[in-house]
Amino acid sequence: MTTLIESDEHTALREAVSSFAKSHDHDSRTLWQEAAKLGYIGVNLPEAYGGGGGGIAELSIVLEEMGAAGNPLLMMIVSPAICGTVIARFGTEAQKREWLPALADGSRLMAFGITEPDAGSNSHRITTTARRDGVDWLLTGRKVFVSGVDIADATLIVGRTEDSRTGRLKPCLFIVPRDAAGFSRHRIDMELHSVEKQFELVLDDVRLPADALVGGGEDAGLLQLFAGLNPERIMTAAFAIGMGRHALAKAVAYARDRTVWRTPIGAHQAIAHPLAQAHIDLELARLMMQKAAHLYDAGDDVGAGEAANMAKYAAGEACVKAVDQAVHTLGGNGLTREFGLARLITAARVSRIAPVSREMILNYVSHQTLGLPKSY
Predict the structure, then answer these.
(1) Which of 28, 147, 304, 373 has its CA 20 to 30 A from that of 196?
(2) Does the reported pTM lie above 0.90?
(3) Within a 13 Å sphere around the CA of 364, how many CA atoms are in the beta-carbon half?
């Protein structure tokens, strides 16, 4: 059973990462490499392949503390959590040897492409397809809102192949090198302020060798996909909680010192209570995130699916409210570059939208947990 009290090892990890993150500027590539040298990036990957031998519980601590220090690394959600997990669980021995040590030591990154212009949350409408051509595969399709493709060495692409028995399309995952012929990227012009950019991908008959298919077989695609999506939701929750804590800390420091009349504004309940509520919401979201991570690391994919969705929902709501209240606490100063809160307004909204919307999580809980009729 999981405990509500963090272990000494987790507390020590949290303190070490916090100290590291607070002492570095956010040059994402340098920060990534230095974090990797300390074992933080690959903490969830198997020791046999150069990782830390931990799980998503440890990786979520790293990302949360990086975010709380104002130095979040978005690609942690993608490279070690999604791609590293999928390869560690389902990859061939050759794929594990090629990718896991490099993902763990920070020398290589991997992006993840699932969303399509006409698919969105409905993965059944994915039109990126792979077909056999001799011993090779030919992959064709489009992806949107793919993070960090410009700095990734390869992208894990979710496509579909035709089942030879039924003729139906089934999910499959391919490792696509960044320099593959026919694989092109176009940066999406985002209002979002982030060092990790968003891209649209075009795959025009990208020829891939047989061993580009994760696991080497065509029957485990759905399991592979969900093995990556649960960590994605847990890590998104960690990202959101870290961001919310960062904003809240700035607001608390400001409210403690800012004096307009005779007392600091933090002495007034109209300021203090909303900040206290934001802290409570963030703490509650963290508890659900820890539960989800524990279930996932224990191998309970079904239980983790419910908890991961709930954690992502709770963390997104808590983050948005914390950022909003932080900006409101600072008033006009909350919109200046000096305090660095205004840029979080847009970033916080992402935690409500990606990688799955609030509404789809509510659909999941109402149908899967409560047993209500499915609406879609």
Answers:
(1) 304
(2) yes
(3) 20
Q: Are 314 and 292 in contact (CB under 8 A)?
A: no
Given a contact cutoff of 8 angstroms between Cβ atoms, the answer to whether 65 and 18 are in contact is yes
Tokens, residue 317: 């709501």
Query: 250 is written with which tokens?
Result: 């700035």
Look up residue 196 and give its DSSP letter. Answer: S
DSSP state of 106: T
**Phi, psi values for residue 170, rounded to 5°:** -130, 150
For residue 75, what are the contacts with CB-CB under 8 A and spacing of at least 6? 28, 32, 109, 111, 147, 148, 151, 152, 196
Pairwise CA distance, residues 365 & 312, whole Å: 12
In whole angstroms, what is the distance from residue 354 CA to residue 114 CA? 12
Two structure tokens written together for 79: 């490279």
SS3 159: strand
Band (pLDDT 50/70/90 cuts) for residue 115 is: very high
Q: What are the Cα distances from residue 96, in Å, to 75, 83, 88, 353?
A: 19, 11, 6, 32
Q: Is-contact 58 44, C-beta < 8 A?
A: yes
pLDDT at 121 over 80: no
Nearest CA to 110 out of 46, 9, 57, 32 is that of 32
Residues facing residue 170 across a β-bridge: 161
pLDDT digits (tens, 9 = 90+) for 189-241: 998 777 889 999 999 999 999 999 999 776 667 778 878 899 999 999 999 99
Name, in order, each residue with C-beta under 8 angstroms of 193's C-beta and a sequence gap of 6 or more: 343, 346, 347
Pair 293, 274: CB distance under 8 Å: no
Per the CB < 8 A criterion, the answer to whether 230 and 301 are in contact is yes
What is residue 223's predicted lDDT score, i.e. its pLDDT? 79
Which segments within 26-179 are labelled E, that is strand? Answer: 110-113, 129-133, 136-147, 154-162, 169-177
Q: Which of 332, 343, 345, 326 is nearest to 253 (CA)?
A: 326
Q: Residues near 265 by Cβ (< 8 Å), separated by ≥ 6?
A: 255, 258, 259, 271, 329
Q: Which residues contact 15 (CB under 8 A, 6 or more apart)?
A: none
